[in-house]
């Protein structure tokens, strides 16, 4: 996949040379960035605000497969995955650090692709790259991103603030990233069996993009502010709706009723899941990687939100003793179980 | 190395179970930690101060060799390496995030050892663990630490503030970590050739500890404050004295004279280097991993510092056009060249 652009061995640059080369086009767009790359530590100024920090590790063979993941997309996704955690606090993301471990199979041109994706994501979301580390790796590609942001104390949304009667809401639609992954895996396997068959992803752009190039929901955080809604709790959906709902219920010490018919699923997700013989609801509940926001709001905020096409009300919070329940389309009650992506096994459980 | 403590497979716990298990004993000791582990992001409060952020990646086979690195030491070192960057800004380190990638060869007991080292380092240095990520890895052990701290704006020491005539100072002694590594590598090779021969590290505790269990120089930052000295520039020595001096010279646009006879080298480092047929000065200049602080001070601060047993004055800054020079014991002038540890090659150049 790196053949067309020439091949410059990274050793020729050395570590400092590589960092200089990759970061020379990174500008600074946030007033809070006092000093970015180039010293022992970045210096940030969040005077009067709370600082938010989150970090994620992305490993080749576990979190991504370079057989079907373009490096530019991967860089973009690595940033989005991390920003999503800052937005899930109802915060403003402003900086990231990026550490990369590289095996010798990657020429400079490949890493430039990766950094181009990082750069595009940062530009689009107004993020400054303020530090990082590069290292050789005996172990394929390793990406560790730490995201940094801020919020006024009164605006921060934790997972533990949901109250009985609160409405359970979710942005966008769910399950697409998971079913997109199934599609990519299928086409990879067909290709491995017969390299003459080209991948058939026609008409599947949306779900493939959901997997390869997710968008964190900065826009939802901004919309909520405009609507003057402060969620009582919030979390981003990285491990699947079921797992995230249980986090909110557990930390808020509440139960919930989730209505299957209310879960937003895109028609392409729905149809492709059916093609694969998978229940679309299961994709939404357990698939993960959608990076949508799950949050609870007071009932009194219902009027403000009810006509927003990008937010679905999917249930409500109950007392803890009532449990966490999924009400199926046939009105059966099932306890919600976390069967999210377990990255420690690297397989869907 | 993990045989004696039983073997619990990590899969049994799952990701959330593992995080809960490993972090249950981490307390909070800093007022600036508003919310540590358990939400999408940590929440920190540095009101009125600047926030400092630094990050490092440690990879098995590149940065450490588990053949002779106890996991407890490795956890301790991973923390120290990162704190060192915050101290090098003349800041106070307060929090870290720790992300770990684990292959299935590690049972829970091994990771508990690693976290015990992390925990001991955090307790000793007053650091809160406020987040992280755990993942399976197909690729050995991966450790990514981000350190967070703060400083008053007026106290921050960048690399670019050195002036002509400033005194060049270094804490502690140099070269020990490098020669300790040579010793460990030698004993490993002897063991591999003949497993009946036990490692002979007797009387070499100091240099072995310099390699396996370095201490970041929080104490020096505190001493400088007590002495009312603000360095004009500062950097920590991770890649070797030569490389770090060149960073200061380049970023400050100055030259320097470094006096070989003034470079602090411990007698054990000196003698062991001679045993290996290596010039002890080269160990200090190019060895790296000492995590001492290199800094410049105004000449008017000389009286305050001259009797401090833990700080050596090793040279002075000159105008840029004079170049960066090492004055040897025989009073020959050599231009200083960076030949530091190049982790992109994983070998000493």
UniProtKB/TrEMBL annotation, chains A, B:
Superkingdom of the source species: Bacteria
Binding positions for Mg(2+) 2 per the UniProt entry: 56, 85
Residues bound to Mg(2+) 5: 239
CDD domains the UniProt entry points to: ThiL (cd02194)
UniProtKB keywords: ATP-binding, Kinase, Magnesium, Metal-binding, Nucleotide-binding, Thiamine biosynthesis, Transferase
Binding site for Mg(2+) 1: 55-56, 133
Binding site for Mg(2+) 4: 40, 54, 85
Function: Catalyzes the ATP-dependent phosphorylation of thiamine-monophosphate (TMP) to form thiamine-pyrophosphate (TPP), the active form of vitamin B1.
UniProt miscellaneous comment: Reaction mechanism of ThiL seems to utilize a direct, inline transfer of the gamma-phosphate of ATP to TMP rather than a phosphorylated enzyme intermediate.
Name assigned to this protein: Thiamine-monophosphate kinase
Organism name: Daejeonella rubra
């Amino acid at each position: 996949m790196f053949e067309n652009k020439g091949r410059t061995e990274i050793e020729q640059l050395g570590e400092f040379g590589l960092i200089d080369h990759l970061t020379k086009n990174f500008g600074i767009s946030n007033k809070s960035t006092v000093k970015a790359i180039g010293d022992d530590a970045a210096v940030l100024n969040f005077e009067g605000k709370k600082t938010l920090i989150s970090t994620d590790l992305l490993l080749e063979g576990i979190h991504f497969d370079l057989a079907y993941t373009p490096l530019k997309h991967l860089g973009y996704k690595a940033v989005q995955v991390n920003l999503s955690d800052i937005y899930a606090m109802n915060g403003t993301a402003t900086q990231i650090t990026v550490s990369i471990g590289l095996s010798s199979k990657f020429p400079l041109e490949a890493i430039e692709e990766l950094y181009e994706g990082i750069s595009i994501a940062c530009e689009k979301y107004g993020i400054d790259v303020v530090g990082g580390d590069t290292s050789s790796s005996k172990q394929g590609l390793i990406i560790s991103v730490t995201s940094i942001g801020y919020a006024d104390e009164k605006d921060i949304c934790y997972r533990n603030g949901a109250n009985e009667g609160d409405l359970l809401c979710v942005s966008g639609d769910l399950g697409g990233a998971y079913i997109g992954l199934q599609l990519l895996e299928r086409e990879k396997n067909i290709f491995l069996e017969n390299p003459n068959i080209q991948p058939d992803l026609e008409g599947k752009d949306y779900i493939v993009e959901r997997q390869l190039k997710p968008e964190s929901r900065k826009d939802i955080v901004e919309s909520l502010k405009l609507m003057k809604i402060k969620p009582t709790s919030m979390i981003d959906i990285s491990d699947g709706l079921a797992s995230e709902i249980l986090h909110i219920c557990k930390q808020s010490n509440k139960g919930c009723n989730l209505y299957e018919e209310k879960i937003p699923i895109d028609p392409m997700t729905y149809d492709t899941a059916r093609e694969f013989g998978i229940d679309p609801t299961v994709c939404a509940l357990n698939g993960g990687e959608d990076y949508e926001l799950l949050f609870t709001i007071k009932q009194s905020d219902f009027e403000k939100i009810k006509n927003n096409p990008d937010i679905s009300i999917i249930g409500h919070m109950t007392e803890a003793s009532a449990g966490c329940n999924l009400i199926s389309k046939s009105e059966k009650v099932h306890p919600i179980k976390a069967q999210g992506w377990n990255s420690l096994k690297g397989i869907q459980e």
